[in-house]
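Private note to self, pasted from the team thread so I don't lose it. Backbone tokens:
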């Protein structure tokens, strides 16, 4: 039986709650972007998710899922929390390996993405947006607020890519 990405229902929290504290809104916007990426994958087979349909780009929806799992892990767990968790797909020699989906296991990669989101939620629970850390790559003090802002823009950019990829795959549109 061929694996198919599950259907999801997006919760439009930040679009409905126009007033809230900064942390509540940041979590809601980040979750909306996470759900949007999953929504763009919903109902597609593993083979469809791996297709590169916007030439000459090598992007695929599966590559984006793998990339965002890697980015979630890197910014929140490795950099902010200082956890020594290593890469999911990348190597020191190939920091773009997550986009190489030939032979990838879409079901496993999808599950890894969901697991990473849960681990990030656990990592950031109860932490102040004002909390800072020394970023190991930049050698600079950074805040959790900055990480949230960077992640929201990263998702916004890649969800635009996901829109185009999904439309090319089966004509599905929507935001």
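Design output:
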């Amino acid at each position: 039986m061929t694996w198919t990405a599950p259907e999801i229902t997006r919760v439009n929290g930040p679009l409905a709650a126009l007033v809230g504290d900064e942390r509540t809104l940041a979590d809601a916007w980040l979750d909306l972007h996470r759900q949007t990426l999953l929504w763009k994958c919903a109902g597609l087979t593993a083979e469809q998710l791996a297709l590169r349909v916007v030439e000459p780009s090598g992007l695929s929806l599966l590559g984006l899922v793998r990339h965002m799992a890697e980015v979630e892990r890197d910014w929140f767990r490795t950099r902010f929390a200082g956890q020594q968790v290593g890469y999911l797909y990348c190597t020191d020699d190939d920091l773009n390996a997550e986009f190489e989906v030939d032979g990838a296991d879409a079901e496993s990669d999808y599950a890894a993405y969901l697991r990473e989101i849960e681990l990030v939620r656990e990592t950031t629970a109860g932490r102040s947006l004002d909390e800072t850390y020394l970023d190991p790559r930049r050698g600079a003090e950074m805040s959790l607020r900055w990480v949230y802002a960077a992640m929201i823009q990263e998702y916004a950019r890649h969800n635009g890519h996901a829109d185009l990829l999904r439309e090319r795959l089966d004509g599905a549109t929507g935001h």
